[in-house]
UniProtKB/TrEMBL annotation:
Gene Ontology molecular functions: serine-type endopeptidase inhibitor activity
Record-linked InterPro entries: CUB-like_dom, DUF7592, Ser_inhib-like_sf, TIL_dom
Residue span, TIL domain: 606-659
Keyword entries, A-Z: Protease inhibitor, Serine protease inhibitor
SUPFAM superfamilies according to UniProt: Serine protease inhibitors
Protein name, as recorded: TIL domain-containing protein
Keyword hit for Transport: no
One protein family per Pfam: DUF7592
PANTHER family in UniProt: CUB-LIKE DOMAIN-CONTAINING PROTEIN, PROTEIN CBG13378-RELATED
Gene3D superfamilies per the UniProt record, alphabetical: Laminin
Annotated organism of origin: Caenorhabditis remanei
Length: 661
């Protein structure tokens, strides 16, 4: 029943510093009907009391209570009590601290900086707006005698970065109610220079995905805190190329207040996808973004994907002590990277610090069918150089358990396969695709692979198909394009490389040629297999033996029969073609230095002093005409080796010096 509005009843209260005023209110008033009881606190926030019994704590130094009604049916009852809070227990925290905001009743939480003001940010596990923070009060000083700033919900929502005016900030929850949020305190000087600063909570089973947009010339930062795991993985990290110069994303330990070096650095143009997933062995880390558009995906808890290696994969293995520099004791660390096929694992121990006797790192590479090799370091060292070995796993174990024992190791899994080279313009002659080791700034290395056009009477025929896929046992190489438009595809799956058909040709080139700066620790091997019996033809273009015991062995055979093998244990070049009629070829190189092998298959074997050419000339070189004029036409055939021509009598290839006068 609606009635005549009654004048508002207003009562004011003065609240001394060090005290709070506790209200207990009972009412059946419905505000939609114009009936309500409201308390205004000392920062002028209006707090409407709901139906039933409720309580409210008003901080110093004043409060006002209003009762308004437009009906004759509402009732209001309230009591108040002054409470001295100077005897509350102090819980002190330095800046850089992260705490759950389930604050203990009758205690207050002091956050103090030695450098500047105190900035405070909050985050919830479910990343929603946490209304329970309205019951956490913020004081601008070292205790509850300080100035009341409002509730933590208000404080965190301020347009300027939330911070104290002095070097201390205090939180208290007079209600003792739980909250799902966490809070982080930082030195204001450590975060105010960012375009934006954010705090996020991580948890096992709850993946994080987010976007960041940082204007040109600015940095933004995010601190991540995982509540239930000491390991998090970067699964995706994409930066849009805004063509604004340098764009970068960095990851460092702990909070902005804790000034530590970046441990992970990703720049625009880097092969970032090959560097993921990346392990982070801490529950607290900070990401800094520089003038970039970023998409990021993280997951916390053990990750099976981290353990999977594939050609082209790279990354960093960083000890937990590096990620947790303020932790005095950590557990021994180990991790494995595994592959289905044998690949070359390459690693470089960027740094290792041994803190006490018995500390060491062991890197072991091996497979189920061979004896593993390993290397150990038990002294402090840095930049030990790249070392590599072939296997299906790389195991890294570190026994250091103190904060002073630490290591950082970079690794990569080498090998990829050129699957398709397709020239797109039929009207340009002399087009080439050239492949050489390393990057342009690593030195001037020779081209190891060259692909070009081959002409025919009917037009242009691209003979490259017969030479693909082509193995490249490295994860760094440079492809050059000469006056051509080309479609190029590169795979990491070795399946097609191993399976050969009639007419297939290619090159087997030792990893030492592709990786001239890497020390190899184990032999290299590869095998090619045909479904039917074919004739494998190979010519050892060059082999360099560096020390006693090194050799190359080429073995050709069929299942169920004894293989035929040939070995070379001396430096040699152009050893001549070898032909064997079998189903598979198995090549083992027991040399850690420069070796080059050319391998091909054909339907019928070539004769003495002949080689098979998938794009040979239809016109023979003879004693009478060693350099014949001929139409440009591709023909897969046997032809005389360079320097040899067909003899007029024997019709066989002979050294041109043996031709009749």
């Amino acid at each position: 029943m609606m009635g005549t509005p009654l004048p508002a009843l207003i009562k004011g209260f003065n609240i001394p510093n060090g005290q709070v005023l506790k209200f207990i209110v009972q009412t059946n008033a419905i505000s939609a009907y114009g009936d309500q009881i409201t308390i205004r606190d000392s920062v002028s926030t209006l707090n409407e009391m709901g139906i039933g019994e409720s309580q409210f704590y008003a901080a110093a130094d004043n409060a006002y209570l209003w009762i308004t009604t437009t009906t004759n049916t509402s009732s209001f009852f309230f009591t108040w009590q002054y409470i001295d809070v100077t005897g509350f227990t102090k819980i002190q925290n330095p800046t850089g601290s992260i705490i759950p905001l389930n604050l203990t009743q009758n205690s207050y939480y002091q956050f103090t900086s030695t450098k500047s003001r105190v900035a405070f940010h909050t985050a919830s596990v479910d990343r929603t707006y946490d209304l329970s923070l309205i019951q956490v009060y913020v004081y601008d000083g070292e205790d509850l005698n300080s100035k009341f700033l409002g509730t933590l919900l208000q404080f965190g929502a301020s347009t300027n970065m939330s911070a104290s005016t002095g070097k201390s900030l205090t939180l208290v929850n007079f209600y003792g109610t739980p909250t799902k949020s966490y809070g982080i305190a930082n030195d204001y000087s450590a975060v105010f220079g960012y375009f934006s600063y954010t705090f996020f909570i991580l948890s096992k089973g709850i993946d994080y995905t987010g976007n960041g947009l940082v204007p040109d010339g600015f940095e933004s930062a995010v601190t991540f805190y995982c509540i239930d795991s000491q390991e998090t993985y970067i699964n995706e990290l994409n930066m849009e190329d805004r063509k604004n110069g340098a764009q970068a994303t960095h990851f460092k330990p702990l909070t902005p207040t804790d000034v530590f070096t970046n441990l992970l650095n990703y720049n625009i143009g880097d092969p970032i996808s090959q560097s993921l997933p990346q392990q982070i062995l801490t529950n607290t880390f900070t990401m800094v973004m520089y003038q970039c558009n970023l998409y990021l995906s993280l997951s916390s808890g053990p990750s099976y994907i981290w353990t999977l290696g594939a050609p082209g994969r790279r990354g960093s293995i960083i000890s937990p002590s590096v990620w947790n520099p303020r932790t005095s004791v950590v557990a021994p660390y180990s991790t494995n990277i595994t592959t289905q096929e044998k690949v070359k694992f390459v690693f470089n121990l960027q740094s290792i610090v041994v803190d006490k006797p018995g500390d060491k790192i062991r890197i072991e590479i091996g497979s189920s069918d061979s004896k593993p090799i390993f290397v150990e370091f038990n002294t402090t060292d840095q930049n030990t150089g790249e070392q590599g070995a072939y296997g299906t796993y790389m195991s890294t174990t570190f026994t250091g358990t103190t904060a002073g024992a630490r290591f950082i190791m970079n690794f990569k899994v080498e090998e990829s396969y050129i699957n398709n080279v397709r020239f797109l313009n039929p009207n340009v002659t002399g087009q080439e695709v050239r492949v050489k080791p390393m990057g342009p700034s690593d030195g001037d290395y020779n081209n190891l692979l060259i692909y070009n056009y081959c002409y025919s009477f009917y037009g242009i025929r691209d003979s490259v198909d017969l030479r693909l896929p082509q193995q490249v046992p490295s994860n760094i190489y440079t492809i050059g394009f000469y006056q051509c438009d080309v479609y190029l595809s590169i795979f990491t799956n070795p399946f097609n490389w191993k399976n050969v058909v009639v007419g297939r040709t290619g090159s087997i080139i030792s990893p030492s040629l592709w990786n001239p700066k890497t020390q190899l620790s184990t032999p290299f091997f590869t095998n090619l297999t045909a479904t039917l019996d074919v004739q494998f033809v190979f010519d050892l273009q060059s082999v360099v033996i560096g020390k006693a015991g090194e050799k190359i062995r080429i073995e050709v055979g069929s299942f169920g029969t004894s293989p035929i093998g040939v070995e070379f244990n001396q430096t040699a070049s152009n050893t001549g073609t070898k032909v064997d009629h079998m189903k598979f070829i198995f090549i083992t190189i027991l040399s850690i230095f420069i070796i080059g092998v050319l391998s091909s298959t054909e339907q019928s074997g070539c004769g003495e002093n002949e080689i098979f050419n998938e794009c040979g000339s239809p016109c023979d070189k003879t004693c009478a005409e060693p350099f014949p004029t001929c139409i440009e036409m591709c023909q897969a055939r046997c032809e005389c080796k360079p320097g040899f021509v067909i003899h007029p009598t024997t019709k066989k290839c002979v050294d041109i010096k043996k031709c009749p006068k």
